[in-house]
Amino acid sequence: MSNELLYVTNLNTAFRTADGELSAVRGISFSVDKGETLCIVGESGCGKSITSLSLMGLLPSNGYIKEGSIDFAGRNLTTLSKEELRKVRGKDISMIFQEPMTALNPVLTIGYQLREPLMLHKKISKREANKQGIDLLKQVGIPYPEKRMNQYSHELSGGMRQRVMIAIALACRPQLLIADEPTTALDVTIQAQILDLIQDLKDDLNMGVIMVTHDMGVVAEVADKVMVMYAGEKVEEGDVESIFNSPQHPYTQGLLRSVPDVDDPSFELEAIPGSLPNLNENITGCRFHPRCPFAMDCCKTESPKEYDVNGTHRVKCWLQEVREDGSAREKVAT
């Protein structure tokens, strides 16, 4: 049986604004198999969440997919009508949003919001949906689930609200789960519980998971594959061992150097200088070159191509050409 689930090819997402068209995602391609976790990492504003909203068809009214295809289980989602996409969203593809306090409707009970996708997609009665909703709350570890069904989001803690979001996302046993910063604003203990829960449910349902995060510790714990984004572009992609043990792009190296090492008291954090460019900044060449300590003349004038490092590890950086031909090797961070 094939494990192929999602293939995204040359995705370009843009926004119409008073200043003209702004490109938020620029020609990225990636794939996710059944039972596989892909982590999309990068600083805030690099296009991670816009990528996930593009997959879900939930872009703001001024956003649109300019180019590319999203092939999910044999269907190109970019060609579906709004009605057809609604039938896929919530049933075959679900999403855990970044902030459950705003994602959950404050004037509707938890039970109402749990029953809604079950009744819509599974065509079951309210009584049966209520029973399945209680079972879902038990599955995600919420105590007294019958009582929680009649409560509102403001009556629950942050960790409980996040578990409710996971229960809603998993209500119809989706093939693909997108988790956008699922542990943001949660304490460390609750973070670990939420990540373990997602991992267990992924294994039970053989789901594909896309985890959007800027936390490299989360990546190390849950990822099978990693895609590093910068300024709307994919700059590096590979299995988790390759990314952590042999990062090739200076931006990926910078992200890893900014993670504290609690086992080494002499370790000093190294911040990446500068900041992400605005969407309307017209940067020629590599978009990271203004912040890159290894920038060469070609980096400032020509966008780098994607190099294949070892078959499963790819990087978009001119330094890879330097590595391959062996010249100026002492200038390259390893």
UniProtKB/TrEMBL annotation:
GO terms for molecular function: ATP binding; ATP hydrolysis activity. GO terms for biological process: peptide transport. Its main location: membrane. It is found in: Cell membrane. The keyword NAD does not apply. InterPro entries: AAA+_ATPase (IPR003593), ABC_Ni/Peptide_Import (IPR050388), ABC_transporter-like_ATP-bd (IPR003439), ABC_transporter-like_CS (IPR017871), Oligopep_ABC_C (IPR013563), P-loop_NTPase (IPR027417). GO terms for cellular component: plasma membrane. It is a peripheral membrane protein. Keywords: ATP-binding, Cell membrane, Membrane, Nucleotide-binding, Transport. SUPFAM superfamilies: P-loop containing nucleoside triphosphate hydrolases (SSF52540). It comes from the Bacteria. Residues 6-256 form the ABC transporter domain. PANTHER family: DIPEPTIDE TRANSPORT ATP-BINDING PROTEIN DPPD (PTHR43297:SF2), OLIGOPEPTIDE TRANSPORT ATP-BINDING PROTEIN APPD (PTHR43297). Belongs to the ABC transporter superfamily. This is ABC transporter ATP-binding protein. It comes from Bacillus salacetis.
